[in-house]
Amino acid sequence: MGWFDRWTREGRRRRIVANPTPLRWDSILEETFWHWPLLSFDQQRRLLGLVSIFLSEKELVVPDGWEREPAEVTTAAAACLMLLGFEDWYCFDRVRTVVLREGSFRYRIGRASGVQEDVPVAGVYQRGVPIALSLEDVLEDCTSAHRGRNVVIHEFAHHIDDLDGALDGSPPFDHRADAARWKALCEEERRALEEAERLGLPTFLDPYGAQDSMEFFSVSCESFFCDPMGLAEYHPELFDLLQLVFRIDPRRWWKSS
Fold first, then answer.
1. CA distance to 5, 160, 181, 245, per residue, from 175 (Å)
2. How many structural domains does the chain have?
């Protein structure tokens, strides 16, 4: 993308965020997004600006029979929560379409044995195609703080992982030393998670993260934004590295509430 394209995109985004958002968006998020009251006034305003960009630039497909605006605003807010620590107006530029589906759906995955299996899923990210999400899971995760997970964050974390063109569970760090620390820690934590699952022991992180490095990154992102206190307590080095990725300390949301 040339300088002219970047300039016009950034100018358009500045104009979007300069316009006031509908007051009903605040009301929607008060009801559907449990993070909303934890954020400072400035963070709420920034989140609304990002939601405006998201909804202006992307197509969201909502199933028949569902209220469109609450579904769109809530989904966009969950994704854009991951961008609050940055100063620019980047907004998942490569994502063009998000398909919200009614209920869980089936997706074919390849097992380590080489066997292909159709499994029920709540979300799917694949490079170059729309992100698919179960709308029921989106609304349940965004409304219920005790769930400790969020399918929107999970799938958009895959997109962040994929920014460098390699969907391998290695998030974008500014320094190679941090990327090397992440890779070593990821392998160590995944092995521990896998062993705990094998022995039937409880774990703080979702055992689904033991599948591979990219799922481990997405599961870790869910914990970082949905239970940062717990992640910092049980996996402090993991928490510190994710702070470097997202440039924010979400524990402050709870301390200031």
1. 28, 16, 10, 11
2. 1
* pTM for this predicted structure: 0.92
Tell me the mean pLDDT in the region 242-251.
97
Q: For residue 151, give the nearest of 218, 84, 101, 102 by alpha carbon.
A: 218
Decide if 157 is inside a domain: no
Q: What is the pLDDT of residues 25-55, one digit of tens each?
A: 999 999 999 999 999 999 999 999 999 999 9
| Run of H or E residues at 213 | helix 213-226
Domain residue limits at 212? 168-257
Q: What is the CATH number of the domain that holds 251?
A: 3.40.390.10
Q: Tell me the backbone φ, ψ of residue 108, rounded to 5 degrees.
A: -85, 125
R_g of the chain, CA atoms, integer Å = 18
Task: Say if 188 falls within a structural domain.
Answer: yes
Nearest to 55 by CA among 71, 39, 31: 71
Residue 106: its H or E element: strand 105-110
Across the range 88-94, mean pLDDT stands at 93
Whether residue 101 is contained in a domain is answered as: no
- The DSSP 8-state label assigned to residue 21 in this structure reads P
